[in-house]
Amino acid sequence: MDCIFCKIINGEIPSSKIYEDEEVLAFHDINKAAPIHFLVIPKKHIQSANEINSENSKTIAHIFEIISKLAKDLGISEGGYRIVNNCGKDGGQTVNHLHFHVLGQRDLKWPPG
Ligand code: AMP
Ligand code: ZN
């Protein structure tokens, strides 16, 4: 499958990995929108948030558990951070493999553009 994140998972494309287990991978975003900006993805290809269902929601819960752990490890838990999922065209999704952005270490504005 021609999916850039699947290629990162199988090692075809290098990434700056932060965390990995059987179910998920976390790595630094190549185009940082904040001093700390990493992505957490399921290893199993899921297209977008539209495809979250009772079969895979345990993995999504696990992703959030890992985000909480990594935010502590990277020192942004106290200052705060933002978890973002862009879904589909209007959501601004550019990579069609479900991913959660974690942004921190800067005063993020709301609402986003
Ligand atoms: P989205 O617009 O929500 O689909 O986000 C896709 C994100 O993937 C963007 O923030 C990109 O900078 C990031 N990205 C694309 N290719 C890579 C890569 N090879 N390594 C790390 N991050 C990437
Ligand atoms: Zn994929």
Describe the secondary structure blueprint for this structure:
Elements: H1 4-9, E1 17-20, E2 24-28, E3 36-42, H2 57-73, E4 81-84, H3 88-91, E5 100-104
Textual characterization of the structure:
The chain is α+β, with helices and mostly antiparallel strands. It has a single domain (4-104), classed as HIT family, subunit A, CATH 3.30.428.10. It is built from three helices and five strands. It has helices at 4-9, 57-73, 88-91, and strands at 17-20, 24-28, 36-42, 81-84, 100-104. The model has no long low-confidence stretch (mean pLDDT 97). Adenosine monophosphate is lined by residues 4, 13, 15, 27, 29-31, 86, 92-95. The site of adenosine monophosphate has 12 residues, from loops.
Keywords:
single chain, 113 residues, alpha+beta, 3 helices, binds adenosine monophosphate
What count of domains describes the coordinates? 1
Q: Identify the CATH homologous superfamily.
A: HIT-like
Instruction: Let me know the average pLDDT.
Output: 97
Cα radius of gyration in angstroms: 14 Å
Count the helices. How many?
3
Instruction: Give the neighbour order of strands across the main sheet.
Output: 1-2-3-5-4
Strand content is: 15-25%
- What is the name of the CATH topology? HIT family, subunit A
Q: Oligomeric status of the shown chains?
A: single chain
Question: What string gives the helices and strands in order?
Answer: HEEEHEHE
CATH-derived architecture:
2-Layer Sandwich
CATH level 1 name: Alpha Beta
- Point out poorly predicted stretches: none
What is the terminal separation in angstroms? Answer: 32 Å
Name every ligand kind in the structure.
adenosine monophosphate, zinc ion
InterPro entries: Histidine_triad_CS (IPR019808), Histidine_triad_HIT (IPR001310), HIT-like (IPR011146), HIT-like_sf (IPR036265)
Pfam family, one: HIT
GO molecular function: catalytic activity
Protein name: Histidine triad nucleotide-binding protein
